[in-house]
Write a structure and sequence with these properties.
Layout lengths: L31 E6 L6 H12 L6 E6 L4 E4 L5 E4 L3 H6 L2 E4 L11 H12 L3 E4 L3 H7 L7 E2 L6 H7 L4 E2 L5 E3 L3 E4 L3 H15 L1 H11 L27 H8 L8 H7 L4 H12 L3 H19 L4 H8 L4 H12 L3 H7 L16
Parallel strand pairs: 1-2, 1-5, 5-6, 6-10, 7-8
Antiparallel strand pairs: 3-4, 9-10
Helix pairs in contact: 1-6, 6-7, 9-10, 11-12, 11-14
Length: about 350
């Protein structure tokens, strides 16, 4: 089976944010307001993820504020306090609200907080959770009728407590458009980078990922956790060098056999190890990487669609259009129109989060 025909494994992948009439210059564009809602017992690493990602974006298109029930110190799960500068009114007015995980996760969330989350959602804001932050979104009612995820350890609790939410414990993150949820810790990085990619394009998201020394793109549908026995020491070598090698050769024919040869493994052993290490198959990983490269080329060059298809390894314009439609819900031409092309006189990028 050729890798070009593999289906991308992506959970509710969001199409690019596209406000066609938002064409104001970058200097005049109002920053996208991100409110990070810090609840009692917040997990410090979950809190640091959105703070780091959204402040690392070049040009500062996001304006981030730490919020709580009221301004002042908020205790963390690690025993120290974090000082927030704003209360719930900022949450209500935000364009995007991020709720980091907190512990204990079954502790009732104050009614005032739930009201603010519901109000933000009702006025069109985008709501995002990391790890157990999904329990707060579910309690506010904004996950009713949606698919959501959380850390695999707590997925059963979320499903039992909120039966109107379809909980998927297997995936890294779920994008339902205006409501997005992620699994624990590292998956929060993936989700925040996904938001940057959705808002500002693959090139910007990849630049932020490089700054953070993070994986540039992991599909939401990749597995959170693969249960497996400890491998012997000889098998503990990572396949990261082979993945890095493949990323420089996406325009070439890449098969499992060729990837395995680079890793000095038998193809079946390589495929098994690849899934164990990444949570996805080699062909699905290749397809996601090729789509990401196509997005970068569409954003940053004036190459024709057939040239983009060739350079990213998808072969033909029809194959590129097929996989673009499946993964992103749009066409390459429409995607390019929504983001900045190579021509400096062209339209500005769309408003974030529309």
């Amino acid at each position: 089976m050729r890798e070009e025909t593999a289906s991308p494994q992506e959970t509710h992948a969001g199409a690019p944010a596209a406000s066609r009439d938002a064409r104001a210059g970058a200097a005049e564009r109002v920053p996208h307001r991100v409110a990070v809602l810090v609840l009692d017992g917040v997990l410090p690493l979950d809190l640091g993820i959105p703070a780091q990602v959204f402040t690392a974006v070049p040009g500062r298109p996001y304006e981030m504020t730490l919020c709580g029930r009221r301004a002042g110190p908020v205790p963390t799960a690690a025993g120290f306090a974090v000082t927030v500068t704003a209360g719930l009114e900022t949450v209500r007015r935000a364009d995007t609200v991020v709720v980091p995980g907190y512990a204990p996760h079954l502790r009732p969330v104050p009614a005032a907080v739930l009201d603010a989350l519901a109000d933000a959602h009702a006025r069109g804001g985008r709501l995002v959770s990391v790890c157990t932050g999904a329990f707060a979104l579910a309690a506010a009612g904004v996950l009713d009728g949606c698919t959501a995820t959380t850390h695999w350890l707590y997925a059963d609790d979320l499903a039992a407590r909120h039966p109107r939410v379809s909980v998927d414990p297997r995936v890294l993150y779920v994008d339902e458009g205006r409501v997005l949820t992620s699994a624990g810790v590292a998956a929060g990085i993936d989700l925040c980078l996904h938001l940057v990619r959705r808002d500002l394009g693959a090139a910007t998201a990849n630049e932020v990922a490089r700054t953070l020394v993070a994986a540039p793109h992991r599909d939401g549908g990749q597995a959170q956790y693969i249960k497996r026995p400890l491998a012997p020491a000889a098998e503990n070598a990572t396949l990261a060098p082979t993945r890095a090698w493949a990323l420089t050769r996406l325009h070439e024919p890449l098969t499992v056999r060729r990837l395995a040869a680079h890793a000095h493994m038998a193809p079946r052993t390589f495929a098994r190890r690849f899934v164990a290490e990444t949570g996805t198959t080699p062909l699905r990983w290749l397809l996601a990487a090729r789509l990401d490269r196509a997005r970068e080329l569409l954003e940053s060059t004036g190459l024709a669609v057939d040239q983009v298809a060739e350079r990213c390894g998808l072969g033909s314009p029809s194959n590129l259009r097929l996989h673009f439609r499946r993964a992103l819900g749009t066409s390459p031409t429409a995607y390019r129109a929504a983001f900045t092309a190579a021509d400096p006189t062209g339209p500005e990028p769309p408003s974030i989060g529309d």
